[in-house]
Amino acid sequence: MAASMVSLLVIVLLGTFALEPTFAQDFCVADLSSELTPSGYPCKPASSLNSDSFVFTGLETAGNVSNNIGAAVTPAFSAQFPAVNGLGVSIARLDIAPNGVIPLHIHPGGNEILLVVKGVINAGFISSSNVVYSKTLNVGDLMVFPQGLLHYQINAGESTAIAFASFSSPIPGLQIVALSLFASNLPSAVIEKTTFLADSEVKRLKAFLGGSG
Description:
The chain is of the alpha+beta class. Helix content is about 20%, strand content about 25%. It has four helices and ten strands. A five-stranded antiparallel beta sheet has the order 1-2-9-4-7, with no helix packed on it. A five-stranded antiparallel beta sheet has the order 6-5-8-3-10. It is found in: Secreted, Extracellular space, Apoplast.
């Protein structure tokens, strides 16, 4: 009797799915003149697109690493590469100078997989149970960083390192912990209380990263 009921349920479900209309479309190239919505950007009319609409040429140029962290990220997210809108993928180029670092950060909207193409990079992430997973990566190595977890990349060699990071979202988001704390106007007293850092250290870091308060 139970087996018959299961078989009947499967038949009903299959019939229901077969009757459901399909609203899938091939692509949704972002209309960047419109507002971003929780589901992405609205689509440009297909009649306005051509082959160039699906090509991005911005990753061949090295990023400017002459900054406080000695690193640069060149993204090809929806805002830079409208063709990935709604497709669940994106990519970015990382350039990290000797002694440079991509500080601890999170991507709240997507998983990341990193491919090293030049140099040596020490990378790692911290799980929600505070377990650290770190590894020194060489050319051709891959490392994955699960969505929403703190992670970092450090140049572990003597020349500029280059890597490409792909994401499971066209808008993975980015929040760098140090910048959120010390490049913002979050009051120093609040930072001291919540991080247990001394006032002198908080002020030093704010001065270094351009924060106020």
